[in-house]
Amino acid sequence: MVSSVTDSKAMKIFLLINVCVWVPYALVCTFAPGLLAGEVVEGLVVFDQSGWVEKVEVRAMYGGAQLAIGLFALVALLKPQHRTAAVIFYLLLFSGLSLVRIAGLLIDGPGLAFTFSTQVDPASYNGGALWCFEFPMMLYAAFLFLKSDQ
Fold it and tell me: Could you tell me which residues are beta bridge partners of residue 37?
């Protein structure tokens, strides 16, 4: 039996957001791994990709893994019986991303402050990822999970 939350418009929007964010980003990272090395967006140098090893890693982890993450949302969007599993997965995913990124920003980075800027740098990349996507999506997934009757 599918709960009313898993059939809700809020659930479908949540899954659609995940498809629309993860799949295109994964495809760009697969076919243009230099995106995170300043080769596509000048100034966006998240990490060095001067060797083939780093490019393969970006293709695998930012391309392959994120494609799977996005396609899981698509499967759950099209097949409602998988939505409960999807909510649990995305709650764990966004919790892990948010909490570890917060820890990293506090331990290794500039802290949790984030200001919108025209500059593209690792600090704005990390702050933007946290505050504009990962943390809000963690709260959204938590809401769906807590409202679920399963």
Answer: 45
Q: Is residue 46 in a domain?
A: yes
| pTM to 2 decimal places | 0.88
DSSP, collapsed to helix, strand or coil, labels residue 6 as coil
Q: Classify residue 3: in a domain, yes or no.
A: no
Report H helices in the chain.
9-31, 52-57, 66-78, 83-107, 122-129, 135-147
Would residue 2 count as lying in a domain?
Answer: no
Specify whether the backbone of 79 is left (phi greater than 0), alpha (psi in -120 to 50) or beta.
Answer: beta
Q: How many domains does the chain have?
A: 1
Per-residue model confidence as pLDDT tens digits over 85-111: 999 999 999 999 999 999 999 999 888
Range of the domain at 21: 9-147
What residues contact 39, with CB distance under 8 A and at least 6 apart? 32, 49
